[in-house]
Amino acid sequence: MLSAQIIGSIQFSNLALLVGYNPTIDSLTLDIKTALDRDDWAIFATLPNLRKLYLTSFYTDLDDTVLITILSRCPRLESFRLECSHARYIKPTSDTSSMIATYLPQRLALREIVFFGHFLWDFVLSLLPLCPSLTKITIPLLDAISLDRLCQILGENKCPQLTILDFSRFHNGQSEIFARIIHSCRHLALKDVRLVWGFTGRDTLEALWQHHGPSLEALRVTKCMDNVTSQDLAAVVAACPRLKVLHLRNWSGNTALMARDIVSTVSGGAIGAWSKTGWSCYNLVELRVTIAGICTTSQSGCPVHEDCQTLQREVYRLFSRLTHLRVLDVGCRSSIARVDLRQKGGLEWTLVSGMGQLHTLRGLEELSARHMENGVGVPELEWMKEHWPRLNCVEGLITGRVKENEVETWLRERWPTLSWS
To answer: Do you know which PANTHER family this protein is assigned to (predicted)?
Structure first.
């Protein structure tokens, strides 16, 4: 099968000549910047085996008839991505559900729907009951009526194969909406949930680990509401043993995972055996998390207690058990978060602090230690070069807290293949 990518200004009549009747094309990406006529959509009748279609940026009138035409002429279509920020949507004169029932089969092959543009969601919601094989859906901002319809469809198990919920286009979405949608999927085995730009609260996290903890393989959270505590984050890593990708970050720095909530403690504050309700996800391939609650060796005016030093080493001992890791990010994503983290006590990225225990991560390829206490020096670099043979990218080496000239010179002379910043 062939894949075609056509970008720029091109008339659909020329496109039809270019593509022709070609049953070998199974993937098509179109970035069309010219106005389209209704007859132009006939091109899809020449692509009977099309499985992936990505349409973007076309300046044209768009209505449900156009979308139905595409779906009816591409019966094998599995992935449909439509970004129409410049399109003018024309409200259909006929009922959408009636048109779908008339012109489309009762079962579509669609496995992924990604429509950017909330005005298209009337159509998407009418389409979902015909998509029993759907595995991924990207959800934009929804009005109250659309939210009710979506929750009803999911609750009635119209998409029994759904495993991926992507809220990455749900800018500034509220946690109660996320929680309601996730709760509607409680009978499903969700594997991948992406809460990237919305505000994730305790209700959302509880719905996730209570209903989907055993099945989740990927979870991305980057904004937390103030009601989220470290214990709420710890409950996630305790209840999701199959996770391979985990992002628990907060751009504002208000919420971080406290070290004592993932490393067990016994009475008196001594650190002992691993907690029965502690960290359970040991198959991680990618981990991006902020750890706090450690009295670090570099904090001015803060006494360095022996159990705090031990706690730092215990966190690294925990990470040393994640032997499948390819990506490790334990830094901060912003200087604002870093200031907040310094007050809470964050990890140090030094051999003295215990990072030497990570020699077990032989497959590590990417590392980020941005805005961490005690920037990496030459001894740490020498250690990393010896123990991580696959490492090709490091962020956070130049922080202003180390002898930068010495570090840069060493990198250029001794490790020229490493990409660093």
So the answer is: F-BOX DOMAIN CONTAINING PROTEIN, EXPRESSED, IM:7136021-RELATED
